[in-house]
Structures are given as structure tokens and as C-alpha cells.
Amino acid sequence: MPPVDALDGWTRSEHTDDVAGVRTTHPVWRRGTGPGVVVIHELPGLSAGVIRFGEELVAAGYTVLLPHLFGPLGREFSNVDVARVFPRVCISRELTKLARGVTTPVAGWLRSLARDLHAEVGGPGVGALGMCFTGGFALAMMVDDSTVAPVVCQPSVPFIGLPGRAADLNLSPADADVVRRRAADGCSVLGIRYASDPLVGARFDSLASLIGDAFLRVEIEGSGHATVTEHRSQVAVDAVLEFFGERLH
């Protein structure tokens, strides 16, 4: 169980759907009222920093879902936890790590979660935000019409180190075509990074090439990586709140 105070006021449920042909269940934590937003945690897990960011969205008037996909729950970020979780993430059938031109398998599960949330709360659709390891997951959720406000924070997968991976968007060619079409129809994508963050590689340039002016690019001066959590920037948080406010209300 998480520390007593980390998820105080949040309600736990579960969501089940197919992942790579296997029925898969993950816990989901929920809080708030208003338009729906799915926040997908980064490595090493659903940390206290991610939860605090979720609480900012709740305070701004959103129904927030925090799916718990892997790793510890409710703890402060630590490199020790990253080292412990990383090997398990690397062998998970649900997650891509190195493959190019492939959508992460858990994207279908996340799309299903967003559809259910949209069916319940209504409105034009839901927001989705991924970060670091899961940065591209929000982009993959845009393939489903229920996601109308995708936010990509410091996307870092597939891992840089081998040729061609620094520019890859963690999307299959078919999903990239859908993202391009939806962007042409008016669905914008917000991308946020620290300008000096090497883990993002050339992915923002790839997004701009894919969807043109529909890609809203925020690059923050200074050093850092986790734009809305461990290296929280008010510029980043304000950009997210403005983006959701324009598209979900």
C-alpha cells in the first residue's frame, strides 16, 4: 500500500482491456470533478510527484485518472527505485523500449480507459498527458477520437543509443497516419521539454514534421528533465492548464 498521505482523497478502482492480445488489469486512482484527464506516470512508478501534479489538475477543475502501470506507488522519486524497476520494464510485453516505428502495446488499454472516462463525464473529449518513458503514450492515445487534448512531456522512448531512435515517435506508421489526419482536422498536440534535455533527442522536430502547426512546442530554458514533476516548471504547468482549458471546457 502507498504511504498514508500520498493518495489521501483518491479513490482506487481497476480497468481491464486487451494488451497484446492478453486481458490485462491495472489499478486506477481517481479524484475530482469536471472534464476528464488521464495522467500517465513516468519511471519509476506512480510517484508522489506525479500525484501532486494530478492534484493540481483536480484543483483546476478536472476529473483525473492516474493509472498505475508499473513500479512503486506513492513514494518520492528515487534513483534507487529507477534501478530496481528498469529491468522489469525492459522485459514487459506491454511496453516498447528500443523498437522503432512501433506503438507501445499498452496504448490500446489507455485508449479504452479514456473512452470509458469520456462516456461518463461527457464533453468534447478527454485530455491525456504522458511524461518521459510514457511521453509518447499520450500521442498514441490520440488515435482514438475520445482523446482531444494530448500532452507529450519530455518523450524519451525508444531509448537513444542506437541509430535512428532519437527521432522516433513511438508510433506505428498506421497510427502516425491517424495522428496526422486528426491534427489536420483540428486536434493539436502540446509538447513540453527542457531545451537542454538530451533524452528527448529530435522527437519534437519529428512531431513538427508530422503535424506542422498543430504541434504546440514549449521549450523551457535551463537544465532539467521532468517538466511537471521532479523538475517542475510553472511555465510547463501553466501551458498544460491553458491547453486543457481551451480544449476540454
- Secondary-structure element string: EEEHEHHEHEHEHEH
Total count of helical runs of at least 4 residues: 7
Q: End-to-end distance, in Å? A: 35 Å
Helix content: 25-40%
Strand arrangement in the largest pleated sheet = 1-2-4-3-5-6-7-8
Helix/strand/pairing class, anyone?
Answer: alpha/beta
Rg: 16 Å
List the helices and strands and how they pair.
Blueprint: E1 11-19, E2 22-31, E3 36-40, H1 48-59, E4 63-67, H2 79-90, H3 107-121, E5 126-131, H4 135-141, E6 147-153, H5 173-184, E7 189-194, H6 203-211, E8 215-220, H7 234-248
Parallel strand pairs: 3-4, 3-5, 5-6, 6-7, 7-8
Antiparallel strand pairs: 1-2, 2-4
Helix pairs in contact: 3-4
Brief digest:
By secondary structure, this protein is α/β, with parallel strands linked by helices. It has helices at residues 48-59, 79-90, 107-121, 135-141, 173-184, 203-211, 234-248, and strands spanning 11-19, 22-31, 36-40, 63-67, 126-131, 147-153, 189-194, 215-220.
Report on this model:
- Helix content is 33%, strand content 22%.
- A hairpin with a 2-residue loop joins strand 1 and strand 2.
- It is globular.
- Helix 3 crosses helix 4 (135-141).
- The chain has a single domain, classed as Rossmann fold (3-Layer(aba) Sandwich), CATH 3.40.50.1820.
- The protein has an eight-stranded mixed beta sheet with strand order 1-2-4-3-5-6-7-8, sandwiched between helices.
- 47% of the residues are buried.
- By secondary structure, the chain is α/β, with parallel strands linked by helices.
- One of its GO terms (molecular function) is hydrolase activity.
- This is Dienelactone hydrolase family protein.
